[in-house]
Amino acid sequence: MAAPSARNEESAVQVWLFAPAQESPDQVRIRRVIESKARQESLAFNVRRVESIRAIGGDNPGRPFNVLKIEDARNLYMGLHRSKAVVVATTASLIRRDPSSTPVRKKQLLSLEDFVRYKAAYRLFRSPAEAERFIEPITSLAQPAMNSDVHDPRVLPLHIFDSQQEWKGLDTDAGSKKFKSTFGSGANRLDHGRREWQKPNALHGGDTLTIAGFELPRGYHWDVVRKKGAERLTTTHEVWKFSGANSYCNIYPDGYIRAGQGDHSAKRVWP
Fold it and tell me: Are 45 and 17 in contact (CB under 8 A)?
């Protein structure tokens, strides 16, 4: 799967709205209000439909979850690294931590709010009145510019780096310190699976990515090496397998994975 093409110019704020396939009258009204505001502000407006998936086991078998389609989760996350964005939902929405399996309990899912945290603004509208009372420009919701460097943990694709928990507070000194004490410094960290995320020897790749207006060096990525770490790695849309200790791949901030060179490359095993 190829990475999207580069967007070097400053892009306007994109609005992404996530709604159920079968909307209630209130959800229809919210969507129309937000779309109207986006059009008035000349903003790109994207509507995506979440799927209702029932848990097959766990504590609440049969419980329905509103889950983003795999391709929508991928495209959203890559899009957030190419333009400023505001993500709006009319229902609580979730993302699969492992796209190859059917979730059996909520801990196998990540909230849409946590998925886009640090990368874009998020707003859940629960009633038409709430949406209609929102009279500020949609652009006022946009994530403040991040003034930092490539070693800031907010640059990481956190859902890949740590697939077990959400990291709130990384925009505070306390949160950043806790992250560093858990995973190590920016130049060479161990992820939740104890794989090494190393500073790249060279930058390659055609994209110049941005995070909340912070521009990364063109082709910036991490060399992720298994060493003594876990064999299996998941993204929102792929599953990769690391074989020996020196097995590796390149992981980019937008979640794109490039296979390594030669016999030591990690392999994509799903899809």
Answer: yes
Buried b (16+ CB within 10 A) or exposed e, 50-81: beebebeeeeeeeeebbbbbbebbbbbbbbbb
> Could you tell me which residues come within 8 angstroms of residue 106 by beta carbon, excluding any fewer than 6 positions away?
65, 94
Q: Which residue has the tokens 């694709």?
A: 157
User: Hey, what are 236's tokens?
Assistant: 């929102």
Please indicate, yes or no, whether the overall pTM of this predicted structure exceeds 0.90. Answer: yes
DSSP assigned state of 199: P
Alpha-carbon gap, residue 63 to 33, rounded angstroms: 30
- CA 225/CA 241 separation, integer angstroms: 11
Contact call for residues 8 and 86 (beta carbons, < 8 A): no
* Pairing, β 121-124 against β 85-89: parallel
**Edge-to-edge order in the sheet of strand 44-54:** 109-111, 94-96, 64-67, 44-54, 14-20, 85-89, 121-124
Tokens of 135: 């009279």
What residue segments make up the domains of the chain, in order of their start? 14-141, 153-270
Q: What's the rounded Cα separation, in Å, for the pair 209 and 188?
A: 21
- Provide φ and ψ at 176, rounded to 5°: -65, -40
Q: Which pair of tokens denotes residue 172?
A: 């505070």
What are the tens digits of pLDDT across the range 52-61?
988 776 666 7
Say if residues 214 and 220 touch (Cβ distance below 8 Å).
no
CA angle 73, 1, 71 (to 5 degrees): 20
Helices (H), the chain: 25-40, 70-80, 112-116, 128-133, 158-161, 173-183
Q: C-alpha angle 24/26/28, rounded to 5°?
A: 70
pLDDT digits (tens, 9 = 90+) for 236-252: 999 999 999 999 999 99
φ/ψ of residue 232, rounded to 5: -105, 135
CA dist 213 and 113 (Å) reads: 19
